[in-house]
Amino acid sequence: MAEFLSTAHCEGLKVELESRDMAKKKKRALITGITGQDGSYLAEYLLTLRYEVWGLVRRTSLDPLMRLQGIAPDPRVHLVYGNLRDSASIGRALAEAQPDEIYNLAAQSDVGISFKCPEETFEINYFGLGRLINEVQHICPKARVYQASTSEMFGTTKPPQNERSPFRPVSPYGESKVKAHEDFVVGYRERHGLFICSGILFNHESPRRGEHFVTRKISISLAKIKLGLQKSFALGNLDAKRDWGFAGDYVRAMHRMLQREKPEDCVIATGVAHSVREFVEETIRAFDMKITWKGTGVKEVGVDAAGNTIVTVDKKFYRPREVNSLRGDPAKAKKRLGWKPNVTFKELVRMMAKADYERIQKSL
Ligand code: NAP
Ligand code: G4F
Questions:
Q1: Average pLDDT along the chain
Q2: How far is it, in rounded angstroms, from Cα 139 to Cα 122?
Q3: What's the rounded mean pLDDT across residues 48-77?
């Protein structure tokens, strides 16, 4: 045990020192998906390491820079127009940014939606990485590339899942990420010597999480119920289990993976899983409320202390095929990257509940 701890400590220290060296040189990083949850945290983190940060931003009908309000005016942040569906725009962004490091976070990242739009999902998640890699080879072949892979790739493989666990995806999203990993991450690393690796990240959340993901849906809905603005809300599978961590912790691991001597894939997780039901219960506690579950299946309801139904189950939120249980084994991340999460499940739930409560109250 002592030997293991000291190895982990040395590895961690080495990575920290390498990071400090890099910071001195003012590295350039290009982030695809900078407007998303992870992109915004990663951009902020890299700025603290004195990076010059470039971000690929696509056209949307609403302001895409909502999550970047804190850093968008920073002169070290450069936003370039582009889309993973358009090779020329990726090439232009690479030529302009001349990045040392590329973080490919852009994706159609909603698993439920991937069943409805499988082609769109493959276009962005699979062919998008292919286009990016192709342009990297021509424009900046020395750049180091991080690919946002996912625990959804493990699908029905029993937990705990680690780097050696088989991929058995059940959703078009999971399939697109497995194929992208095999063809472009493993394939280009082994056949073309590209510095590219996958972070196989388990679910990570924050107050900036997209509002349709289950954790954010729960924290927003219960904040509204607490404020008397809503009576109840519906969920799908209450018994699905996920290994939920804090996004701000996970972006540190992405950076560390690109500071290693050699590119290696790594699972990033807390090692602890909770069910959707437990996420509801923890959020209820954060709001100083009570819940009792009654009934089963689609007839199950969650009732508050006054006897009001506040949670129902609706079949429309069930997935055609479900990943029932994900729990990562982060031993390699601890040993090789010196990485561990700082925020616990309970702290994460409280952080999200407080942020949504205060934001909604302020908007009244
Ligand atoms: P997110 O909030 O949904 O962000 C996705 C980003 O991709 C957004 O910036 C989005 O831009 C951009 N994007 C989508 N389609 C694009 C296109 N065609 N061209 C360029 N940009 C495009 O996702 P996230 O939670 O930050 O996750 C980041 C990455 O990690 C994703 O690849 C996801 O699959 C992966 N991942 C996430 C988790 C997790 O628990 N969060 C776990 C494992 C892996 P708009 O703002 O314009 O929509
Ligand atoms: O919050 P979710 O939609 O996240 P999911 O499907 O695990 O995907 C997220 O994590 C992946 C990593 O494993 C990422 F790769 C992916 O990009 C994304 O960030 O659903 C979590 C669980 C599922 O089992 C789902 O069936 O919650 C269950 N659930 C129950 N009721 C619900 C709902 N999910 C959503 N979105 N909405 C519900 O009402």
A1: 94
A2: 24
A3: 91
* CATH class of residue range 2-209+245-271+324-342: alpha beta
Residue 156 has a pLDDT of 98
Map out the domains of the chain as residue ranges. 2-209+245-271+324-342
- Using the predicted structure, report yes or no on whether residue 327 has a pLDDT greater than 50: yes
Q: Per 3-state DSSP, what percentage of the chain is helix, strand, and coil (rounded to 5)?
A: 45, 15, 35
- pTM, whole model, 2 decimals? 0.94
Q: Which residue lies with its CA nearest to atom 4 of ligand 2?
A: 213
The beta-strand segments (E) located in the chain are 28-32, 52-57, 77-81, 101-104, 144-150, 196-201, 204-205, 233-235, 241-242, 245-246, 266-268, 274-275, 292-294, 301-303, 309-313
CB under 6 Å to ligand 2: residues?
Answer: 109, 111-112, 150-152, 202-203, 212-215, 217, 235-237, 240, 242, 276, 317, 319, 322, 326
Is pLDDT at 16 greater than 80 in this prediction?
Answer: no
Q: How far is the CA of 108 from the centre of ligand 1 (A)?
A: 6
Active site residues: 150, 152, 173
The atom number, within ligand 2, closest to the CA of 323 reads: 24
Residue 21: what pLDDT?
Answer: 52
User: What is 103-170 written as a DSSP string?
Assistant: EE------HHHHHH-HHHHHIIIIIHHHHHHHHHHHH-TT-EEEEEEEGGGTTTSPSSB-TTSPP---
Report the C-alpha gap between 243 and 22 in whole angstroms: 32
Which token pair is 360?
Answer: 């909604």
